[in-house]
Amino acid sequence: MAVPHPDELFLAGGWVPADGGRREIVSPSTGEPVATVGLPSEKHALAAIQAAREALSTWAELPVTERVEICGRFCAALEARLEDMGAVWAVESGMPVRYSRTLHRFAAVAAWRTLLESAGHVLCDDSRESALGDVVLRREAAGVVAAVIAYNGPLVTIASKVLPALLAGCPVIVKAAIESQLIMRIIADCAAGAGFPEGALSILCGDAEVGRAVTASPYVDMVSLTGGRVAAQQIIEATRHRFARTHLELGGKSPALILDDADLTVVLKTLVPGATSGGGQVCAALSRILVPERRHDEIIEVLRQAWEGLTIGDPLDPRTQLGPLASPSVVERTEGFLARAVGDGARIVTGGKKPDGFDGGWYFEPTLVTDVARDSELAQNEVFGPVTAVLTYTDPEDGLRLANDTSYGLSASVYTADWAKGVEYARRIRAGSVAVNAFGPALTAPFGGMKGSGWGREAGPEGILEFTELKQILQGRGGTR
């Protein structure tokens, strides 16, 4: 496989030799190596931080229109290479090209087009009157940003996190997942021709040591993470002494609340992809399906047929709906959750093993589990694998309690024949994104979590403001203007 710049890193706007060792990329579909690339070292992390610090005034003081123009060239290059990125992402992560085409075009592209259109407006100065004089409210760049992103949606995270920070005037060091070597090299290749000032953008696909070097630096003003709770706790610990800002988009245990009047034909259209796309390796995945007791058997049978009808196969085949999981550790974690759930009395309706005919690779069947206790590990904790738990409720109020009965609050869906009732229920669910008869979020609007799913918002016009500081300039009565 042809890999752009396999022995180099995109640092401070240019390509430099990698000296942090080598990594063999293994295909999740076959378990066989497909490429070898060079890795960044802590030295590269420190160099990227220094370059970003030096670029802060240059990038932040550019007129917004010029930042939009440069970022627009970056996005145009990305759009021209969507197919390439989908293919290499399938090879290194197992995400099907069918999934990436939908995710990239309807989430990533939509997100950055909204950002480019809205940046000039949201970053304009505002003015207010006061007894002391007129007040100008000014949005200024928060400073150097470390953007830590996961393997399960790198291009979408570039769109929802990195581009808002750049448009706000922040130089960005992207610490990408070590599993995302191929797709991030194409992304970096697109950035290289966009015309960013030296130091405004660096992309490092490194290990945890590289990540710690970036997030612990006193010269990094803000850390934005998409990841898990352990990583978030480590970042909070690394940044608290210097009072650096943090933005955390963490995991979820998102409910799909099926109300008693719901039409299952409507439900299946978005619930099935919402629960199973990406093999469950999606933070917003609908991993808990909440059903009324009286309709449990009916709904379980419909869901079983839908789960068993999914096409498992080569992620490069456009017919494939579920590819392999990203690594053996994801398979082991999934198996462990299932074994413990069954031991606690849960019942596997379908799935629960490696599919027949897939001897190579890290495949696992989409799995549906019922008789799940509300306080069980499977009901409360994120699997990040292809396991969906079905729980029952007695009445609508009990369903709402069950939807909120988790420490997470990232995403949710409500299914009902009564749209107004669905909106009412959506308002009462403690989650950053709730969809009615649909699966979200929409990345043309701000997205983020409540409770243990983190804090802050990314994407949409408001996502740009997340990376700014709000300054008031009081214009006193004396002097001339």
UniProtKB/TrEMBL annotation:
Stretches assigned to the Aldehyde dehydrogenase domain: 15-473
Q: Spell out the molecular function terms from Gene Ontology.
A: oxidoreductase activity, acting on the aldehyde or oxo group of donors, NAD or NADP as acceptor
The entry's keywords: Oxidoreductase
Does the record bear Secreted in its keywords? no
Q: Which residues form the active site?
A: 249
UniProt superkingdom: Bacteria
Keyword Oxidoreductase in record: yes
Q: What does the sequence similarity comment in the record state about its family?
A: Belongs to the aldehyde dehydrogenase family.
Question: Which protein, by its recorded name, is this?
Answer: Aldehyde dehydrogenase domain-containing protein
Task: Specify the taxonomic lineage.
Answer: Bacteria, Bacillati, Actinomycetota, Actinomycetes, Pseudonocardiales
